[in-house]
Amino acid sequence: MDTVPSQMAAVLLTGHGGYECLEYRTDVPTPTPGAGQVLIQVGGAGVNNTDINTRIGWYSKSVTDGTDAGGGAGFDGLDESDGSWSGEPLRFPRIQGADCAGRIVAVGAGVADDRVGERVLVRSVQPLRDSADPMACRTMGSEYDGAFAQFLVTDGVDALPVRTDLDDVALAAIPCAYSTAEGMLHRASVGAERVLITGASGGVGSAAVQLAKRRGAEVIAMAGATKRAAVAALGADQVIDRAANLRHAIDGTVDVVLDVVAGPVFTGLLDVLRVGGRYATSGAIAGPLVELDVRTLYLKDLSFFGSTYQPDEVFENLVSYVEAGEIRPVVAATYPLADVVVAQQDFLAKSHVGKLVLIPPPLG
Questions:
Q1: Are the C-beta atoms of 228 and 206 separated by less than 8 Å?
Q2: Is the peptide bond before 93 cis (omega within 30 degrees of 0)?
Q3: pTM above 0.90, yes or no
Q4: How far apart are CA 12 and CA 221, in angstroms?
Q5: In this predicted model, what pLDDT tens digit does every residue of 30-86 receive, in sequence order?
Q6: Taking phi first (over 0 means left), then psi (-120 to 50 degrees means alpha), and beta for anything else, what does residue 164 get?
């Protein structure tokens, strides 16, 4: 590690709250890979809803509003005891960032030396392989330090080599959003069916459109009026306004709903699911509390799928899609790492289609 600086630039999350909790520093100790680990020089780090949710403590059951309500300033009266993905208290300071594309620059004991120099994508959601719970997992940038830095350390098995002509900025748009979308498709066993996707202009939604089309699905996407053309360009067969009456906007029913919005739209989503249909969710940006008529659930024989844990094959398949040129990430804008607050403000403004990517400063 003699070519790796002892200190690095990074954004430290110092507590739950507003933008004041994000501290850009250039004197953070560079991590050292332990046994089975690799050190990665970060080439790009995508901005995700989970970064904001983690900062503001949205995962706590004490929060009942959507992300936007506390995205800037946080939430008053937050119970910090369950403010992370895992339901455990978050440890501060924490380096966030669930997306990483970069290059391995050093390895720990037990990792082959020839991995140095590999271009890699890092799993955002990582199975805890030594746990008795088969669905136990951790999230990079939440349970351990992530990619809002020049370097990060992760287990070698979770840094997958990728061979592609895409640059690090484009690759950085992939791990969290695309694996979340692919995880829902995998969990709900989506095939050549009729699929309704909410939040289709965002990172996960735009990924879900492309990945569902890859599986042969007919895609009906929901997006704001100003973004409908861009979502259609991703391959959606029909794009309807996010405020539309779904019964009127959709001809007939759908087989599957992939939802990252929830909130007030939830009831309408179930209304247009066919008998025996499936609902899969990996987010609730419009609000986590919804109204469910249980009669709709059982009289229509619906199946519900929550989707956080991802078996290894989800990310492995995703990398193979990238290498085969079957998906092309959409990057709306890039920012220097030091401008993380501006990037999150723009993310919350939701004026973009696709991903926002942070770029760490060059070495030297």
A1: no
A2: yes
A3: yes
A4: 36
A5: 999 999 999 999 999 999 999 999 999 999 999 999 998 999 999 998 988 888 878
A6: beta
